[in-house]
From TrEMBL, chains A, B, C, D:
It is an enzyme of class 1 (oxidoreductase). It comes from Allobranchiibius huperziae. SUPFAM superfamilies: 6-phosphogluconate dehydrogenase C-terminal domain-like (SSF48179), NAD(P)-binding Rossmann-fold domains (SSF51735). Its EC number is 1.1.1.343, 1.1.1.44. InterPro entries: 6-PGluconate_DH-like_C_sf, 6DGDH_YqeC, 6PGD_dom2, 6PGDH_C, 6PGDH_NADP-bd, NAD(P)-bd_dom_sf, Pgluconate_DH. This is 6-phosphogluconate dehydrogenase.
Length: 302, 302, 302, 302
């Protein structure tokens, strides 16, 4: 089938390749004209035959809002937009309502797999009506990994359900990574363990903790044992935050995923206001020495 | 080669089969005579030619202590004991010292893989001297999964290092399982997500969270969607506790693995003394209603 | 001065008494006519001389919304509403805007102190313009504890700031209570400590952990040592949730307050879906026994 | 009565003053001869009349071990040693057994109150036999705050129970401080709150969170609003670690106190090995940019 694809970055660019490799026609658009197949959105729309399917693969939030808004003026009733970015599920509901007024259908699709997806395929989590999801199925089948469809793709529910499942997926991802990371730090601290990279690699087969992330961890350790080259500064892209906020909203205990998120927050702080407060209180009651700004700390006190 | 194997339960029994299938001779001993190849430990030792290798696969702690102690009286200088159970690494150091006085060598080996190991092979994490570990290598090769040796087996360091790596492996396992579990609970709470089992299954290919545990979770959900049949009562076998205690000892932050451990503690409490204390304090300051023993709780108060 | 007071429950009723005891005139309204000074809101408004000050002390959310909406139709330009309930700060911004269109001023005020406030005074945290806050000052002075004004009252900022500070106050309260509660549970578990209630009481003077909550804990333990009569079922009233959601929004690590909140969530669950998931995964990989619904658990497995 | 006091530092020196002010005779010893009343331990013992009471107030662990060992050679049967330092309760049991062989009695006493204790009195938590504790009572009464004895002193159980209660006291202290600190960080992050120091001060009277630590926090903020002068580097002195390890040993969930401890660990790390691991994994799967050592981080990525 024919599809328009907006956003040809790290994810979108690879997806264009994979969809084309499956025999479909892709008209891609990017603000970078060197890689774009269309001059602008209007040009992209004009190159597609109605009823059109356009996949939006741009940063969540304002950029996605703006692209979907622009598209809604260019597309016609009967066309369909897929939002494949990392949008919040509440954005999906809003987008679907706005588009519905113009007769444009909407499907949300969480996409997992990172830079490996081009070759290995992408894990896909969709939301929308049966009819709308079915319309995009040839593209889903092109993007998802080989194997049974239900092992790499799910129609999770109505509009928003796809991004919701992807959001939780990312929350789980935070927790898993933090679990490996804590284990790594302890292994690295314990003198008895001579070869931490080898331990991580040895978990690849037969163990309970084997996983793709564990393999990536082994790969990373093979390249840079001891992590001498990189800093422990870790961003978060929104989905972990939404997962925790949703858990709080629904009364779901979420100690592990929240702890993983908070560890990322801490990793980005030059100094911790909270720990300054603790240092200040200790100084007040115990005369415990405080470390002045710019000083190196002292580790023991009595 | 020839090996003695003590303990033919869920793990040991399968391991005997797998070692035999690889062409080695196994003399197994178990207190259950129906499955045992030897009448008693003395009989087992008599059936092995010196220098002997005996693999101990019994519950950690007192049982392992007792078996190793008994063996140390029956074996000779030049023999070797492998402890493949879930022993604490500090036990290994003690066992190695005691055996060394009699000239008996000692290797510790953490074994992962559960009931699936018989067919898929076991992930193995060893500690001991190069020479001693090398002596057991044919058995390690029989037990570990097919594929490159370093993807299912590691010689992690001196005596104790194998069980240490296995201990941390289990701590990570706790954290991973809790991450999936928290994600599950949120998905199950959110009405927008229509098919939670399908979501877990769809993560099998292409996603960042794909893993063996994720596949097992999908399998479990396929059998019992909604977990109507089982209770959220979860044991712990020691290794998670040791992992957290070691982290505290070494000043390693371990929020995720400790939270996973504490969640298991809570899961086994009929009532929480801590939460009784919170309820009592709230009642004192605010006249907030408390729930009497045996009553059903009220969920909102002002 | 003269003030209208809407809501004469556990908090509002005591506040009416305390304000009157300070020599001010209070016209109270409650849906319970037996304790109400006015037939209805219209009657209340008619009994106050313009420019009026009306303090709203009803449950946050829909009830507060409804009362403020009704009042906005009955009051005149130049009147002022104080919301003293546990409203979310975002509600304050909305209320202030709506009222401003009619020329009605708005002040938010978080009130702490529970049933003890009538005698001891209430801790007050206000938000609004200098002019509006100043107008209510005689009432604030009547309600707050004796002593310097700045030790029991704060003008924290513009509209919403009062409830924001109160929200964080409650989040801290959750964390403090959980800290005492965890300490209690450990003391109660350790056979070496013979008299846990005495230990809590002994912390009243001289120690670092002395506090009002600690005194209440000692009082509660004196009444019911061992907490044999009450259940560990703990509600939450919204502010803890908002505190954590705000922390997530602002990238503030909040491990302790979130853990306290999650402990309350768990305390209200008959069974934990997350722990059912963990039990199910363990059963899949290790053949670990699961506890069926209705069964008592088994504590050890191998 | 007469008492020997070993260790005249920040705590011991003040305690000598307070005991003397109550009319007792104190022979103090310190390695700093300028403040010492005795040349050495032998001299101290010779200046006391049998049966002697000697209070040891030196750093826990090796120093306390060494002083108690030296004293055990100098004292006679019938004498009594009080360990008032921050010793681990397991040390108490060992010390009591060693001293018992020589007929020397032993009492452990946790002392809280910091530099404020000289004037306000110290919170005391004792362990030992009724007879031994009774013998030291005049000194306990001198050290504890004015008011009812049971509000500043407890005989918690046999040897070790005093330090156990003090250990848990400190664990609770960690949790409380972290709760205030998290609340502080959120208030400081929220632009709507104009005067965070004033908010903390306003909690002094009437609120649920009022406490001595809250007053100290208000004092610290008054001196250095915004904590511009001090660094968020926080030590721990052992008791928090033991509290968490004991909780793990006894199966007591302790999310808040452990999180407080871990936050201190993190505060002392130049870089976090765990977060390096997370950054490395993210880079592997997503091509997420990593921050090289020495670089400033980038906060957003897509």
């Amino acid at each position: 089938m024919q599809i328009g694809l907006i956003g040809l970055g790290k994810m979108g660019g690879n997806m264009r390749d994979r969809i084309r490799a499956a025999g479909h026609e892709v008209v891609g658009y990017d603000t970078d004209q060197k890689i774009s197949d269309a001059k602008d959105l209007k040009d992209l729309v004009s190159k597609l035959s109605a009823p059109r399917v356009v996949w939006v693969m741009v940063p969540a939030g304002k950029v996605t809002d703006s692209v979907i808004n622009d598209l809604s003026d260019l597309l016609e009733a009967g066309d369909l937009i897929v939002d494949g970015g990392n949008s919040k599920f509440t954005d999906d509901e809003r987008h679907a309502q706005e588009l519905d007024r113009k007769g444009i259908a909407f499907v949300d699709c969480g996409v997992s797999g990172g830079v490996w997806g081009k070759e290995a395929g992408y894990g896909l989590m969709c939301g929308g009506s049966d009819k709308d999801v079915e319309r995009v199925m040839p593209i889903f089948d092109a993007l998802r990994p080989e194997g049974p469809r239900d092992e790499g793709w799910v129609h999770a529910g109505d509009v928003g359900a796809g991004h919701y499942v992807k959001m939780v997926h990312n929350g789980i991802e935070y927790g898993m990574m933090q679990a490996y990371a804590e284990g790594y730090e302890l292994l690295a601290a314990k003198e008895i363990v001579k070869d931490v990279p080898a331990a991580f690699k040895a978990w690849t087969r037969g163990t309970v903790v084997r996983s793709w992330l564990q393999e990536l961890m082994a790969t990373a350790l093979a390249k840079d044992p001891g992590f001498d080259k990189i800093s422990g500064f870790v961003n978060d892209s929104g989905e972990g935050r939404w997962t925790v906020q949703e858990a709080v909203e629904y009364g779901v205990p979420m100690p592990v995923i929240s702890a993983s998120l908070f560890a990322r927050f801490v990793s980005r702080q030059d100094d911790s206001p909270a720990m300054q407060a603790v240092a200040a209180m200790r100084n007040e009651f115990g005369g415990h020495p405080v470390t002045l700004k710019g000083q190196k700390g002292i580790v023991t006190d009595h």
